[in-house]
Amino acid sequence: MRKLLLYFTLLLSSFMVSQQAQDSQSDSSIERINSTLDSLESKITDEFYQNNFLSVLKYSDEALKLARKINDQTLVFRLLRYRGSAFTKIKDTVRAKRTFEKSYENAIKLNDSIAIANTLNDLGNLYHEYGQDDKSIDYYKHSIRIHDKLKNQRQLYILHYNLAEIYLDDENIAKADFHIQKLLPYFNTIKKPLLKAAYYFTKGKLLLLQQRPDEAIEMFKKNIEVSKASNLTDGILEGYGFYIKALEAKQDYEQLYHIRKELDNYKDEKYEIEKAAAIQEVTARMNVDQYKQELKAKNLENELNRQKANRSSTILYVVIGATLILAGFFIVLLISSKKRKELVQNLKAKNIQYLEAKQKAEELSQVKTNFLSAISHELRTPLYGIIGISSILQEDVELKKHSEDINALKFSADYLLSLVNDLLFLNKLETFKKKKLDCKPFEIRELVTNITNSFEFMRTKNNNVFDVVIGEKVPRFLKGDFVKLSQILMNLIGNACKFTEEGTIKIHIDQTRSGEKSVGLQFSIADNGQGISKDKQKIIFDEFTQDSKATNFHGTGLGLAIVKKLLDLHNSPITLKSKKNVGTAFSFTIDYDIAHEDEFNTVKKKHTVNKHIEGSHILVVDDNRINRLVTRKILERNNYVCSVAENGQEAVDIVKKEVFDLILMDVNMPIMNGYEATSLIREFNATVPIIALTAIDPTELGEDINAKGISDVIIKPYDTLAFLDVIRRNFVSTIQI
């Protein structure tokens, strides 16, 4: 919106200054000149607001000569302002600055307060175009002091608006608010839609910075409404742009989708306008240079013609030769200008296409991220109930005869959860590329044993045998990102289990390089299953790629894509050898630092709590009845006393009346969410551990966890042992053992 006001003052202030112009001369020749000047000034005004800046410069140059001839300094001032603004419009800031400085000197000579104030405003606009806002602010404030004395409300409105925009861009809320308040006295009396739209837009930006998105949205709606009524395309686009930011702050993604669609329609319209404006701007700049060259050529030709009348024929030949040289230069200049113009137009068009494609890709990426996040939460919540209840049923001796069915149920739920996690993890890998690996000590043999044990059900189902061989030279303790190594091995072993029946799956780890502080380990996972055809081997690491002929096997086709991306983080290529109906072998090499047993024990001690506090009172806060039931059953089976609450408000009321040793708090709940409830509880109880029990992806919880007073987080669905370990760890943090 600020761009709509930068030159709004030109016509207004020129009118004011023109009211002060006095012409006392009555000579008939001066009257004819004045008549010509009136006609020229009218043309200049029309051409300026039709963006014909070459015509503005041409007519103003002619008018300046006449105005100076009759010594009309007031008109000289106005004409200089038009020329300065025309140069600014075509991005010739050097000539614009020089012209405005002449205009300011002229205003000082006139001792005209309005002229001085308006030229200060011009210089403020120009320095803002330079990006030198400190100077711009000084000029605006100087202009305000003058207009304040003159009680010129409309000019004050525009100047305070310009300052408010600068301070909003710098996120200086206090100063921006001060200047927006200055707009109010004049706002109720103005009729110009542009000025009304500008106020709503600026007020909305301020409210958004003050983290008041609902109020900001109302302002942006009014801005869009006024802008649409007056066909102010810039106002519509910028209003929608900040409307979207306010919806993002509210996390109102449904409304955000609709508003983005509306914005895209106006962007297409704006693109056509800006394309035409860009072409016009480049053309104008070229034409200005061409006009100056023509003017120089014309002046030189006139001078030569005058000399021709007074000099000998020898000088005439020199003039003719010079004219020919000048003509040749002019032709070269025209050709160069034409080529440059074409190049500029092509570059602008390609740049616009690139920016549009980049923006579209970013928007699609964000939509995909939001969609996967929402789907994750909606799937994880019921999966928590299924996995939790099936885990409880597995431990019930009375249901032993149904153990096979219960195991199958839990396996299916775990498998579905792994698919959801694969989708989300793949979506987050772009973020991981910018982060370092999380290196911690671990025991390689224990890690491999735990991984193979997790596939016991699938191994038994397909009647396979694991052949695990870890070379004797492989150190017992290593330091590296064992979580990502686990994901790599689990995906490769899971793939082998899925496509192998009544076969052998070999997991071999050998040392390939040995150093004083680090080693290189080669991992090999091989099977004698159905193998992979040669054409499929070329695309096997692509996302969502599966063997379409393998109708007995299901999945998302993400496992090997995830493996490839994780190994890229380790700067390690993966090798594939496979033959149809013979088998498949994957191998890769990763370098690890050598760790010592004391390092491993220190880390292990941090995550292991032997102290079990039986009878501790735990409050479970969750709006889902099944989730409350599952969590309560798990806690009671481990000798904890359990109470429940359906929402954050109920939890706050219960904690005020009863004493709890720990609180498990869901995040998304009706009436009052987990963050709000935690904040209220912390006002009167700062010590009780509060653990967030949520299905939200951990990367989306952000800084709210620590800022709101939450002690720890457990992501649903979870492993029961890990769940109990987090609870015990938080007991230890508040109890001296």
TrEMBL record:
Enzyme class: transferase
Pfam families, alphabetized: HATPase_c, HisKA, Response_reg, TPR_12, TPR_8
Coiled coil: 340-367
UniProt TPR repeat ranges: 117-150, 197-230
Histidine kinase domain mapped to chain residues: 374-594
InterPro entries referenced in this protein's UniProt entry, alphabetically: CheY-like_superfamily, HATPase_C_sf, HATPase_dom, His_kinase_dom, HisK_dim/P_dom, HisK_dim/P_sf, Sig_transdc_His_kin-like_C, Sig_transdc_resp-reg_receiver
Modified residues (4-aspartylphosphate): 666
Domain Response regulatory: 617-731
Enzyme Commission number, as recorded: 2.7.13.3
Signal peptide: 1-21
Annotated keywords: Coiled coil, Membrane, Phosphoprotein, Signal, TPR repeat, Transmembrane, Transmembrane helix, Two-component regulatory system
Annotated transmembrane regions: 315-335
Catalytic activity annotation: ATP + protein L-histidine = ADP + protein N-phospho-L-histidine
Domain of life: Bacteria
Gene Ontology terms, MF aspect: phosphorelay sensor kinase activity
Name the UniProt record assigns to this protein: histidine kinase
Upper taxonomic lineage: Bacteria, Pseudomonadati, Bacteroidota, Flavobacteriia, Flavobacteriales
